[in-house]
Design a protein that fits this description.
Helices cover 25% and strands 35% of the residues. The chain contains 7 helices and 12 strands. Strands 1, 2, 3, 4, 5, 6, 7, 8, 9, 10, 11 and 12 form a 12-stranded antiparallel beta sheet that branches. The longest helix has 26 residues, at 2-27. The protein starts with a helix and ends in a 20-residue tail after the last strand.
């Protein structure tokens, strides 16, 4: 009797193992050919998003930078974006920040500003720079709707998703070498993750095309992650030598994107330092 139970137990374990094995194959059964379909679709879906929060970190050999951009609008109790009758976001807000070599460079906030003195609510773009002591300076205040700011060339050229995803638009799956990833993608639920290195001729071609360095220049490999058919992150690694026979992977570029960011507080246009700005 015990022998029969043991055989049944072994059979049960074998069945469970086969089920898990089958599930594992299903999670990792995406090929490079399928990536050629998924990749442009994820880029296109991201570029169609109107609300987003991204954070970009650069650790180059001679400088570091950190930038964030949050394009925000309020949701109702059903988690739907609140819009006006014409379809525009009813309370859109924008927050951008630039830092270079661990020092602030530029800060901007745009949206509806409440009066601290009982005046009308008005929309403003608030901007300031920073001095060498990291103090905010050169305050500017401009009457402007956030919809105007997000469509301005100053914003589109630096802070739009098109600006930060511009190289991914240019990069194709044919430019990728998947030897580091064994020509497979990791696919779990709504998340797709894959690693690659760019082909040898890509860096030179990109520089000739755009007159600037690629984010992949000097890289060993990169890892891209899609979530819900949109770009979630890209991380680029280089090889850093620590000794004659020792090296580590160093993160030289990282871009993280979510499609609904944290709340934004807009200052009062007629109180504090902003009351003095004309």
């Amino acid at each position: 009797m015990k022998h029969v139970k043991l055989i049944k137990l072994i059979c049960l374990f074998c069945l469970l193992f086969l089920l898990f094995a089958a599930g594992g194959c299903a999670l990792n059964s995406y090929s490079v050919d399928e990536l050629k379909v998924l990749y442009p679709k994820a880029i296109e879906n991201s570029l169609h998003e109107e609300l987003y929060y991204w954070k970009e970190t650069v650790n180059a050999a001679d400088y570091s930078s950190w930038r964030t951009c949050n394009v925000y609008a309020e949701m109702d109790k059903k988690f739907e974006i609140i819009r006006d009758e014409d379809g525009a976001f009813s309370n859109m807000k924008i927050d951008v920040y630039d830092e270079y070599n661990k020092k602030g460079v530029y800060k901007a906030l745009c949206g509806k500003s409440q009066s601290a003195k009982g005046g009308e609510t008005e929309s403003f773009l608030f901007e300031n720079d920073y001095d060498d002591l990291k103090n905010p300076v050169h305050y500017r205040k401009t009457a402007m709707q956030p919809q105007e700011f997000v469509k301005s060339e100053a914003f589109k050229s630096k802070y739009s998703l098109d600006a930060v995803l511009g190289e991914l638009e240019y990069l194709t799956v044919d430019d990728m070498d998947f030897e580091t990833d064994n020509k497979m993608m990791e696919h779990k639920g709504k998340v797709v993750k894959f690693s690659f290195k760019v082909n040898d001729d890509y860096i030179q071609r990109y520089h000739q095309e755009f007159g600037k360095a690629s984010v992949f220049e000097g890289s060993k490999y990169a890892v891209i992650e899609f979530a819900y058919d949109r770009v979630a992150s890209i991380v680029v690694f280089s090889e850093e030598k620590l000794g004659k026979n020792l090296s580590v992977d160093k993160e030289i570029y990282k871009l993280e994107i979510v499609y609904y960011g944290p709340k934004i507080s807009i200052p009062s246009y007629d109180s504090g330092v902003w009351a003095e700005v004309k």
